[in-house]
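QA checklist item 7 of 12: single-chain prediction sanity check.
[x] sequence parsed
[x] length recorded as 67
[x] structure emitted
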Amino acid sequence: MVDLTQMLAGPFCTQVLADHGADVIKVEAMTGDGTRLTAPFCEDDTLREYGGYFQSVNRNKRSIAST
């Protein structure tokens, strides 16, 4: 399944599918999904590039970047 979504509803729905075993590929812009920059951040993420919100709705997915 290809995930072209952003923000809450779409990523959450595809995350549920991925949690249940679907092979989900998230397609992001070369600059990454904008929600990657949303806090909270882990202490070791000094660049602040992988926020907790992004992690919470994109687990169990693979990702690629496209122009």
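[x] summary fact logged: The chain has one domain: 2-66.
[ ] second reviewer sign-off
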